[in-house]
Design a protein that fits this description.
Elements: E1 2-4, H1 9-15, E2 20-22, H2 33-57, E3 62-64, H3 70-79, E4 84-88, H4 95-100, E5 106-109, E6 121-123, H5 135-141, E7 150-154, H6 161-170, E8 177-181, H7 187-194, E9 202-205, H8 212-217, E10 220-223, H9 229-234, E11 239-241, H10 251-261, E12 265-267, H11 275-286, H12 289-302, H13 307-320
Parallel strand pairs: 1-2, 3-4, 4-5, 5-6, 7-8, 7-10, 8-9, 10-11, 11-12
Helix pairs in contact: 2-3, 6-11
């Protein structure tokens, strides 16, 4: 049973065949006092809803995903003495997890976090879909030849405007294939910028599903540094990472540094990203096959392919206990 709000889970959970119990809650704004007050009022009401849901379901364990929906549900689990397992997807503990961690049976971390060690914490990595292993089929989907070099550009469900614009301008004349998932928000603007007809080497899509095909088809990724870096690693891809500069506690920068320190990525600051800089960084890597190969191996070593299984094991252990 899933408990969720008004975001992607509204469609994703039912489509996967599970029941979703809705809860009205929102994040606490750190910049707008009125929004913060509204969020606090909603949180009180959400706690009552969460108590009612747990009273009805009588679960053997509760798993919290770290977002603001997990706050009221996790607190209700603690109040009812239901075993609680938490997951933290980023390199910085979010507010919900910081408040609930002391009550959890286990906190499963995507990354090692300073000060978060001991028996309560376990580094599991972040669960991601199983990697696409049929590279030939993935390339055939996008009509990319077996001997062609392909650079994948993406920035999340909405895209990333700075990456989108730098890629279209900087890679428009590139001598390799570009597969660019730009998000729906910027698609029309970028499509116009590519001209008519668009360059034959440049594949621009608002959205690619399943996304594993795009990762399997690529030789190098250009991306933000959110949780998707674990999907990049699961496919053994080297990466140029451009962290989102306004992420909470600058966690995307920490995520990118972890990838770079592991030898799998180079990091370019968002303010430093220009079309010329992007073209230069991509060209330098593609011109050095030895370095690219070493980065791909490093990326694969950072992957945590068993993350979902390991977290599930912790939840079942908590339920059995």
């Amino acid at each position: 049973m899933f408990v969720g709000g008004e975001r992607a889970e509204r469609t994703l959970v039912p489509e996967a065949g599970y029941e979703l119990r809705p809860i009205a809650v929102e994040g606490l704004s750190r910049t707008n006092p009125l929004k913060a007050a509204r969020g606090a009022v909603k949180a009180v009401g959400a706690l009552g809803t969460a108590r009612s849901i747990l009273r009805d379901l009588r679960p053997d364990a509760v798993m919290g995903g770290g977002g603001y929906v997990a706050g009221p549900v996790g607190a209700a689990a603690v109040a009812r003495r239901v075993p609680l397992v938490l997951t933290e997807a980023d390199s910085h503990m979010g507010l919900t997890n910081r408040l609930l961690a002391r009550f959890a049976r286990r906190v499963c971390l995507a990354f090692p976090i300073d000060g978060r060690d001991g028996a309560r914490y376990r580094v599991t990595g972040r669960p991601v879909p199983a990697p696409q292993t049929d590279r030939a089929a993935a390339r055939a989907r996008f009509d990319i030849g077996a001997d062609e070099t392909c650079v994948l550009v993406f920035g999340g469900s909405l895209g990333a405007r700075s990456i989108n614009r730098a890629a279209v301008e900087g890679l428009r004349e590139a001598p390799f294939r570009v597969l660019h998932a730009c998000g729906r928000r910027d698609y029309d603007e970028l499509r116009a910028a590519l001209g008519e007809p668009p360059p034959p080497h440049y594949i621009l899509e608002p959205y690619i599903s399943p996304f594993g095909d795009a990762l399997a088809a690529a030789d190098l990724a250009v991306a933000r540094a959110g949780g998707s870096i674990f999907e990049v690693a699961s496919h053994g891809l080297p990466a140029i990472l451009v962290p989102y500069p306004h992420a909470a506690a600058d966690h995307q920068n920490a995520n990118a540094r972890w990838m770079a320190e592991g030898g799998a990525a180079i990091v370019v600051g968002d303010a430093e990203l220009t079309p010329e800089r992007l073209a230069e960084e991509v060209g330098r890597l593609l011109a050095d096959p030895g370095r690219l190969h070493a980065m791909a191996n490093a990326s694969e070593r950072l992957a945590r392919p068993d993350a979902a299984r390991d977290i599930a094991h912790e939840v079942l252990e908590a339920a059995g206990g």
